[in-house]
Amino acid sequence: MLKFIHVADMHMDRSFEGLGKIPQALSAKLNQENQTMFARIIDYAILEQVDFILFVGDTFHQPQISIQTQTFFIDQLKRAAEQNIPVIFSLGNHDYYQKERYWFAFPANVYLFEEETVQTFYIETKKQETIALSGFSYTHRWINEMKVSEFPRRSSKADYHIGLYHGQIKTGNDGNKYAPLVLSDLKLKGYDYWALGHIHQPTEVLSQPLTLYPGAPMGHTKKETTAKGILLIQLTGGIRPFYRWENVSNVEWHQETLDLAFAFETQELLEEITKQIISKNVKTPNKIILLSVTFQNITEKSSDEFRQKITNGELLEYLQQRIFQLSEERIWLYELDQEAKNETIQLPLGVQKELIDQLSARYVSEAFFEKRMQPLYQQNLLADRLPTTKKEREALVMRSKQKVFRDLGIKREEKP
Ligand SMILES: [Mn+2]
To answer: Distance between CA 299 and CA 157 in Å, rounded?
Structure first.
C-alpha cells in the first residue's frame, strides 16, 4: 500500500486580499499563518508517516521568493528529510523555476523538476516498492503546449506510476496558457494517479485513473471560500483508492446574512449587531475568521440613515474595530453589504474625458497593467483572455474606454 500527500497552489507568500486597512496585529498573524500552514503540512506528513509528499506547483505566489521565506521553507523540508520522507516538487506558472533565484540548496530528500521537458524520477519506499513519478516544471509564466503526450506510458519497472501536472483542462477548441490538457489523454498513460495543480477549487476530475485538484489549501481572497486543504491519498493496487482532504488552515472566509427584521431602537442596533456576529463565530476559537456580512430586512424606520452609514463605510469601520477587539483579535469584518431595495444607478458627476484618457494611457503600460490586473490573472477562465502584447493591451483599453464613454454619456469629439 502506498500513502502520500498531494499539495498544490499553496501560494505561501501571497498576501490576503480585499480586507481593507487591517490592524498591524492582524497582518502579522495572517503572514504567520502562511508559514504555519506549511509547517503543519510537514507535521501531518510525519504524523501519518507517508511515503512521500507531492507539491504540484504554485507553492509560492511569485517566482522571486524572499530569503526569509526560503530559509523557513528549506528548514521545514529538512524536517521531512530527517524522517526520510521524500518531497517531489514541481513548479507552476506563479513560481516558475529559475535556478538563480534559489539561495539555498534543497536537502537530499527533494526531487525537483527543473525543466519544462517531462522527466521521470524513481523512488523506492520503505516497503521496497518502486514508484515512478513523471512531471515537469514551468520555467516561464505560460506554457502554451499540451504536455500529456510527452509523458511516458506506465513504467514496467514501477509498482506505481504517478503523473504530476500543473495545468488547466482544455475546454472546446480554445487552448489556454497553462499547459492545456485533455482528460481522455490522461487515461491512455495507464497511471495509478494524476496529481493536478492550478485550479484553486478542490475538484475530483476523474475517478479512473484517480485524478484530483487539491485546490488552494488556504483561501487568500474571498473567492477562495471553498478551501478544503491538502489531499491524503492511499493506493492499494487493484482495490479502490482512498483519498480525503485534510484541513491545514486556521484562516477561514465566512459570509453571513444578518436579519434585522426585528425593529430595534437605533441605540440598540450597534450592540445587537455586534452580539449576533460574535455569537455566530464563537464555535471556532482557534480560527481567524474573515467575515462578510449582508444585512437583510432593514426596517423602514431610520433605514435611510442606516443604509447611508453602510454605504459611506462608517458602520464598517466602527464594527470591524469593535468586533476585532471583542473577539480577541480573531474576527475581522472586511465587508458590509445590504440587500438592495430598488436601487437606481447614479452616474458620477463631472467625470472628465481627459481624466479617463489619462487613466487609459496608464493601463497600456505593461507594468501598470499587470499589477492592476493581478487578481484577474489568477482567475483561470479570465487569465487566457488577458492581453499579452502591447497591441492587445491597447485594443482592450480602447474598447473599455469606449464603453465607459458610452455608459457615462460622454461624447467623443469628431475627428477633423
Ligand atoms: Mn497556477
So the answer is: 71
